[in-house]
């Protein structure tokens, strides 16, 4: 019995990372890291082992942030976590800037521009709930209308004041 308990304890100390799911591009990096930290504490992993254990679970932007660190920073979990979170904040800001600066170029399909706006907005906002999707559609529509030629806006009979009033927190630019 004693041998069985000590074997179970030893296994919990060295629980494989396979008990954790690998990060996906859809994961929220803060939630992923919080889950990783809870699991690491649960299995009593020494904190100096957290960074190498985490590295094998990363993908995409998080993996690039880790790979961009020098060797000593890559061994520090707090440095790795800071780099990953900074990378995601920067990426989100880049998508916001691209969304706000998109222009409809001569000869470009308005439908293509609308799809590009929606794609950038999804990447920027990462909406999850139904209300967020409704807000996303309103924001995309507002931005789409602003990039259309004036004569097209008139043809569509879109009342910009009504559109702007329907978007919570909207500020005229």
TrEMBL record:
Matches recorded under InterPro entries:
SCAN_dom, SCAN_sf
PROSITE patterns in the cross-refs = SCAN_BOX (PS50804)
SCAN box domain segment(s): 96-157
Polar residues bias (residue ranges) = 1-17
Q: Where is this region: Disordered?
A: 1-26
PANTHER family for this protein: RIBONUCLEASE H, ZINC KNUCKLE DOMAINCONTAINING PROTEIN-RELATED
| Name of the featured protein | SCAN box domain-containing protein
């Amino acid at each position: 019995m004693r041998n069985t308990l000590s074997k179970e304890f030893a296994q919990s100390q060295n629980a494989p990372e396979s008990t954790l799911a690998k990060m996906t591009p859809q994961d929220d990096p803060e939630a992923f890291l919080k889950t990783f930290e809870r699991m690491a504490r649960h299995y009593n992993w020494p904190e100096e082992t957290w960074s190498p254990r985490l590295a094998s679970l990363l993908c995409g932007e998080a993996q690039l942030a880790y790979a961009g660190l020098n060797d000593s920073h890559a061994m520090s979990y707090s440095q790795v976590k800071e780099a990953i979170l900074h990378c995601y904040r920067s990426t989100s800001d880049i998508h916001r800037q691209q969304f706000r600066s998109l222009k409809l170029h001569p000869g470009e399909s308005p439908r293509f521009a609308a799809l590009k706006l929606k794609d950038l907005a999804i990447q920027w906002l990462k909406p999850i709930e139904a209300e967020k999707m409704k807000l996303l559609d309103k924001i995309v529509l507002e931005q789409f209308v602003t990039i259309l030629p004036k004569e097209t806006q008139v043809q569509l009979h879109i009342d910009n004041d009504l559109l702007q009033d329907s978007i919570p927190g909207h500020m005229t630019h």
